[in-house]
C-alpha cells in the first residue's frame, strides 16, 4: 500500500469513525425516546440507566475512533518520510513540513468528520421512519426529529476531527526533528521499523491504571446486584482499564506472541516468523493496538447484547409484559446488530491498513533476508505466518477484554432487577469463531499485495529501493 492509498484508507476510517460515533448517540437518543413511552419509562432507574449509557457510548465512540485513526495516520505518515526528507533537502524547514502535515490532517479530519456526521444524521432519520412503522405504532412512534438531532452527538465528530489533526502532527515528529541529510537515514530506519525501544515491559503508571480499572470493575460486579448506579463505577473502571491497555500494549501482546509461536517450527518460514517477532515484538504489538480495541468493542456489544437478551427473556417469560418486551427487544437487537456491523467495518479497514502499511514499511528488513539467501516463497510464507500470529494474538486479547467489559456492563445495568442478582456469561461460539477467522483472513489478504511489491525485484535492487 502506497502513501496515497494509505491516505485514502485513513480518510475512509475518519468518515466511518465519525459516522459510527454520531449514529451511536443518535440511536441511544431514539431508543431512549421509544422506551420512555412504554410502561418501562415510568421507572426512574430506566431513565437514569439510559442517560448513563449515552455517556458510556460517547466514551466508546471517542476511544475507538481516536485509536483507529491515530494508528492509521501514524502509519501513513511513516510511509511518506522519505518524501518528506527529500523536500527538506530541497530547502523546506522542519517547521514548514510539520505545519503542512498538520494542515492536511486538520482538513482531512474536519471534512471526514463532517461527512460522517451528515451520513449518520441521514441514517438516523431513516431509522426513525422504520422505527415508527407503516401504521405509526412502532417502538419509535413518539420519537421525532429532535431526537435525531441530538446535541451531544456532535462530540464524537469533534473528537475524530481533533484526533486526526493530532495524529498527523505527532506522526511527523521523529523524522522532522533531524537535519535534512540525517532525515534520509531516519526515513530508512523508520521504514524498516528497526528503530525504537523493543524492551517488553509494563510501566508503573500502566500497572496502576490496569489495577485500578480491574478493581473498579470487580466492585461494579458486586454493586450491580444491589443498584443500577453501579454502572457509574463500571464506566470509570472501564475507561481506566482501556487506557491502561493502550499504554501497556507493548508489554502485554508480546507474551501472547510467544505462546502462539511456540506452536511453530524452529526452521523455515515458521522459524523466520518467530525470529522476526522475537526481534521486534513491541513494534508488532503497537501496530495491532487498533485491532485489539476494535475487536474488543465488537465482542463487548455482541456479548453484552446476548446477556441482555437471555436475562430479559428469562425475567419476563410467561408474564403480561412478555409481548411488549419482545417488541422492544427485537428493535434493540436490530439496532445493536447494525452498530456492530459498522464497528466491524471500521475494524476491518483499520486492520487492512495497518497490516498493509506495516508490511510495506518493512521493505528493507525483508530485502535483507533475501540478500542473505531467503527465497521469495520462504519470504512470503514468513510474512503470512507472522501476520497470522499477530492477528490471532490481537483477536484473542480483544475477545478477552470485550467479554470482561460486556459482562460487567450487563451486570451493572440488569443484575439488580433479576432474581439472584447475577447475569449469566453468554459468549456466542459464532462470535469467537467469526472474529478469529475474519481477523486472520483480513490480515493475510492485506499483507499479500505489499509483500508481492516488496518481493518483485531481485534481492540487491529490493534492498536499494527499500
Question: How is this structure best described in words?
Answer:
With 466 residues, the chain is mostly helical. It is built from 18 helices and no strands. The protein has helices at residues 3-36, 44-78, 81-89, 94-132, 145-148, 154-171, 173-176, 180-192, 204-223, 230-261, 268-279, 281-287, 289-316, 322-361, 363-371, 376-414, 429-454, 459-465. Helix 1 (3-36) runs parallel beside helix 4 and helix 4 packs antiparallel against helix 6 (154-171). The longest helix has 40 residues, at 322-361. The two termini are 14 Å apart.
Number of β-strand runs? 0
Low-confidence stretches: 187-195
What is the gyration radius calculated from CA atoms? 24 Å
The string of secondary-structure elements, in order, is HHHHHHHHHHHHHHHHHH
SSE layout and pairings?
Layout: H1 3-36, H2 44-78, H3 81-89, H4 94-132, H5 145-148, H6 154-171, H7 173-176, H8 180-192, H9 204-223, H10 230-261, H11 268-279, H12 281-287, H13 289-316, H14 322-361, H15 363-371, H16 376-414, H17 429-454, H18 459-465
Helix pairs in contact: 1-2, 1-4, 1-6, 1-14, 2-6, 2-10, 2-13, 2-14, 3-8, 4-6, 9-10, 9-16, 10-11, 10-12, 10-16, 11-16, 13-14, 13-16, 13-17, 14-17, 15-18, 16-17
Amino acid at each position: 500500500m502506497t502513501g496515497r492509498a494509505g491516505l485514502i484508507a485513513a480518510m475512509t476510517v475518519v468518515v466511518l469513525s465519525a459516522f459510527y460515533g454520531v449514529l451511536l448517540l443518535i440511536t441511544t437518543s431514539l431508543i431512549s425516546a421509544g422506551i420512555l413511552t412504554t410502561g418501562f419509562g415510568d421507572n426512574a432507574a430506566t431513565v437514569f440507566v439510559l442517560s448513563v449509557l449515552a455517556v458510556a457510548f460517547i466514551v466508546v465512540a471517542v476511544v475507538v475512533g481516536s485509536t483507529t485513526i491515530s494508528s492509521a495516520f501514524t502509519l501513513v505518515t511513516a510511509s511518506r518520510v522519505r518524501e518528506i526528507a527529500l523536500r527538506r533537502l530541497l530547502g523546506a524547514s522542519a517547521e514548514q513540513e510539520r505545519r503542512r502535515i498538520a494542515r492536511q490532517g486538520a482538513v482531512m479530519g474536519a471534512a471526514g468528520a463532517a461527512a460522517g456526521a451528515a451520513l449518520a444524521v441521514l441514517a438516523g432519520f431513516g431509522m426513525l421512519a422504520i422505527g415508527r412503522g407503516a401504521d405509526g405504532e412502532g417502538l419509535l412512534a413518539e420519537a421525532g426529529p429532535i431526537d435525531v438531532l441530538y446535541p451531544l452527538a456532535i462530540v464524537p465528530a469533534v473528537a475524530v476531527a481533533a484526533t486526526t489533526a493530532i495524529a498527523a502532527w505527532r506522526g511527523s515528529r521523529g523524522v522532522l526533528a533531524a537535519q535534512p541529510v540525517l532525515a534520509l537515514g531516519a526515513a530508512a530506519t523508520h521504514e524498516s521499523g528497526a528503530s525504537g525501544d523493543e524492551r517488553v515491559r509494563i510501566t508503573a503508571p500502566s500497572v496502576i491504571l490496569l489495577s485500578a480499572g480491574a478493581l473498579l470493575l470487580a466492585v461494579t460486579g458486586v454493586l450491580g446486584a444491589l443498584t443500577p448506579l453501579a454502572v457509574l463505577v463500571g464506566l470509570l473502571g472501564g475507561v481506566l482499564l482501556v487506557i491502561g491497555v493502550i499504554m501497556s500494549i507493548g508489554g502485554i501482546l508480546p507474551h501472547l506472541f510467544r505462546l502462539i509461536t511456540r506452536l511453530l517450527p524452529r526452521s523455515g518460514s515458521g522459524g523466520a516468523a518467530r525470529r522476526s517477532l522475537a526481534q521486534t515484538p513491541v513494534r508488532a504489538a503497537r501496530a495491532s493496538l487498533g485491532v485489539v480495541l476494535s475487536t474488543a468493542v465488537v465482542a463487548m456489544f455482541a456479548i453484552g447484547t446476548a446477556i441482555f437478551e437471555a436475562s430479559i427473556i428469562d425475567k419476563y417469560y410467561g408474564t403480561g409484559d412478555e409481548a411488549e418486551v419482545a417488541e422492544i427487544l427485537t428493535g434493540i437487537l436490530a439496532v445493536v446488530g447494525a452498530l456492530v456491523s459498522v464497528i466491524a467495518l471500521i475494524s476491518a479497514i483499520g486492520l487492512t491498513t495497518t497490516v498493509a502499511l506495516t508490511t510495506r514499511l518493512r521493505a528493507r528488513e525483508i530485502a535483507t533476508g533475501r540478500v542473505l539467501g531467503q527465497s521469495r516463497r520462504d519470504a512470503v510464507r514468513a510474512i503470512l505466518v507472522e501476520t497470522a500470529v499477530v492477528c490471532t494474538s490481537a483477536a484473542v486479547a480483544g475477545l478477552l477484554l470485550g467479554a470482561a467489559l460486556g459482562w460487567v456492563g450487563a451486570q451493572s445495568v440488569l443484575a439488580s432487577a433479576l432474581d439472584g442478582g447475577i447475569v449469566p456469561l453468554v459468549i456466542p461460539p459464532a462470535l469467537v469463531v467469526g472474529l478469529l477467522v475474519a481477523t486472520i483472513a483480513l490480515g493475510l489478504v492485506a499483507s499479500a499485495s505489499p509483500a508481492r511489491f516488496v518481493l518483485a525485484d531481485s534481492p540487491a535492487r529490493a534492498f536499494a529501493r527499500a
